[in-house]
Amino acid sequence: MTLLSAKNLIKDFGGLRAVNVGAFELPQGEIRAVIGPNGAGKTTFVSLLCGRIAPTQGAIHFEESDITRLPAHDRVALGIAYTFQITSIYPNLTLYDNVMLPAQRRASLNASNDAADRAMVALERVGLSSRAFERAGSQAYGHQRLLEVAMGLALAPKLLILDEPTQGLAEGEIETFKELIRAMAKDATVLLIEHNMNVVMALANRITVLNFGETLAEGTPEEIRANADVQTAYLGG
Amino acid sequence: MRVDRALILHLAVIALLFAMQYVMSPYHQGNLARIMVLATYATGYNILFGYTGLLSLGHALFFAAGMYGAGMTMRYWDFPAIAAFPTGIIAATALAFLIGALALRTTGVAFMIVTLMFAQAGFLTLLYFNEYTRGDEGFVLPQADRAIGMIDLSADDTRFIAAWMIFSVGLLIALAIVRSKAGRVLIAIRENEERTRMLGFNPFPYKLGAVVVSGAFAGAAGAAYALLFGSVGASFASIQYSIEPLLFVLLGGAGVVLGPLVGSILIFYLIDYAREITTAYLIVVGVALVLLILFARKGVLGSIRRRTDGWLP
User: Could you list the residue range(s) of the whole structural domain that residue B120 is in?
Assistant: First the structure.
């Protein structure tokens, strides 16, 4: 079943066509990686999907319903969560308060009363529960990235969009992240923007390659590895 | 169950304020009554500025709406005080809803300017309709009207208790709001609005709610001021009355429920003592603000909170 699809999705910034994706389909349960050279439009593309920016043209469907004009906060209610490329947390609040917000949102959507439990579970899953009442801003960078993911998790989304989650992390931390993403994919479809090929190859079921805002190739990791166009785009042939 | 020490602290402060009437001279008792009314105004302002992070320069308009909502209905339609007070609150709340809905289309500096412009327009409107508002020189509510049943609100002791009741209710409402789920969202909007939106919260209704609540507090304070001290005038809609709650909140501690009370007391007495020494008493206020920015940027209680694990709401 297709969870999310986009058709003829175009975003222009002035004269620049940042995104021009003819067709994009994301089946439920998949881990999909979006890769591409710097400036290929990856972040712009997923920002269109999660509603942070509005498309110039095109249509986006999520679980059969048209969400093209839906504001970002309503898409979150439908089950689309987004974690930022540049760490975006509440540095002055505790880790617990950081995850409490999305947990509270999910609890109110479910009309349940379990926000506090959800918050602690989300922190446990990323291994930060022992630091729950420390200030988020005083945590190490790697822990802040994990917190960002925990905030996404606490929303219990159907689709989790991770924008370069391993950026700036050490090797050991990246291993933790891989395990974490694998575990999350059991409950949610994952759309992953990633530069680290090791992570992409290890996790992705399928890969979409963007170049100059357009889909250059799409396929399994093996197919993408063997694709001549992709090699040219990356190596600048 | 865990001891709710924040609630106990706030109740203790309320009890302490009540007890002050027995130890204070009538002069200071009158001052404290006035401070509590102004602190109610600032407590509401703190929800908007301290907790939601929206800086309005136009709340004098809501203070004046409360004041005129109560004063005009008493003067022209012979409303009894008991009906005039809620009329003032309703007038201010409705106006806050309207102006909030318009001004919140802007953010940051533009929001400050738009709120300031609305307040100035309101101030000038009061002066323009001087025939009815007596805006320029103000009017005095007759002492006989300033009573609820047999209770004379203009007498020293009843006035103190009335001011104390309004402040206490306001303080407890503010405490409940900032500790509620909605209060958590307000703080989140202050800290990182874009992140909050991407966690599924539409910031607009929360921000509008903060404007309306702070407007209602301002209106309650304005109406109380008219009833307790008897004077109604356009000067209360001037920029000075928009800046005042901002100063109280900054000095006492933005984003601390008790901050505005502490700030109001400090600034009120600072001006009071400075006036005895010099006619240029505003210089003293200016120096106090410079010292604040240099040494205690989070205000008095904000600085204390940093040393106490931040449990103070």
Answer: 5-237
